Fold:
Amino acid sequence: MSAAAAIDLKLTLPEKLEPLYEPRRYKVMHGGRGGGKSHGVAQVLLDLGARSPLRILCAREIQKSMRDSVHRLLKDYIIKLGLESFYEALDNEIRGLNGSLFLFSGLQSHTVDSIKSFEGVDIVWVEEAHGVSKKSWDVLTPTIRKEGSEIWLTLNPDMVTDETYQRFIATPSPDTWVAEVNWWDNPWFPRVLDEERRKAKRTMLPADYAHIWEGKARSVSAGAIYRHEVEALFLDNRARDVPYDPTLLVHAVWDLGWNDAMSIVLVQRGPQDVRIIDYIEDDHRTLDWYVAKLDKMPYRWGTDYLPHDGKTKNFQTGKSTEQLLRELGRPNVIAQTRATDVEEGIKAARMMFPRCYIDQNKAARLLECLKRYQRRIHAVTNEPMEPLHDEFSHGADAFRYVALWLPEMLGSGAAAQESYQEPEAPDWRT
Structure:
């Protein structure tokens, strides 16, 4: 097949995707189901690859097999566009008669060294780009360095705080073309799919419909354990500036970690509310580092509350975290006497949420953890199981401990404040 024949291909390309033929370093297509983003990109790449020899990488964050890639979609369009005599679709790559080559790879498994094999790539197409991590982007983007090379993204945004959304949609660089493409932009939107869309609009939660069919980024992960509680938190304006009240003690609730994150929630127990005024999270820090950070804060301290492993003695020092904190100048330290059931703690946290105010700036990381705290899904039955242990679980665990320690806080706070007199503070919520 000649290049001239390839130019005459009858593409079913939405008008919004026509700028794909114009040079840009980054081309970002986002939107909901049925917009034709992936179908349009597949056709244009096959067209471009038939016009001139190109090396094209089709990637996603995790790829277990070719079935997880756009390999099948490209094969289908090779047939639909009548390109069978030009392209040879092999198990792991697609080759053109002119030397064009389509490669397929997951990004998560690559390192700075292993990804060097893609340095000569002309175009990278990242499908389901919403799931690509900061690490993967930091490895990929400087690797694609050939003169005139481009990086194409197709995605239905997940959350506004995702790395991909922030990097390419919220704050795109000047050399980025961004297009929102939805079902109403696709002249070939199937009637059967439109019927499904109409049914979804009648039966789905508005937020779910807006995400799936209109490509709106979520504020809270769909699978979050506290999804509805966090949505209510924002709806009721309880994620806001929460000022320190000097008439109330500040309690530090710890989730202990070393290789994992150490999380500390700073909370004030009001007469009818729970105020989370600050939050600390870090890893590979010594205990004295956290204490020094706490000591610099202008708060009137109450009690440091620890989980049950706060009583476990370190084999090197022979002392527990409870003991070490006291030695470091934290006089009021209490650790749980037993490990509490996780589900019991989650239930307590759900009950606490309606009374909870969380500082949107100082505790932003905690809010992110609560937005993304999810359960593991059984690979066979698809049933939700125990909570995931990941980068977001540590903050969520500390929040759970706050709920479990609340009765103790009220008692210790009242007792500790008997000798302290201060004028009544104005209502900070007004």
Summary: The first strand starts at residue 26 and ends at 30. The radius of gyration is 27 Å.
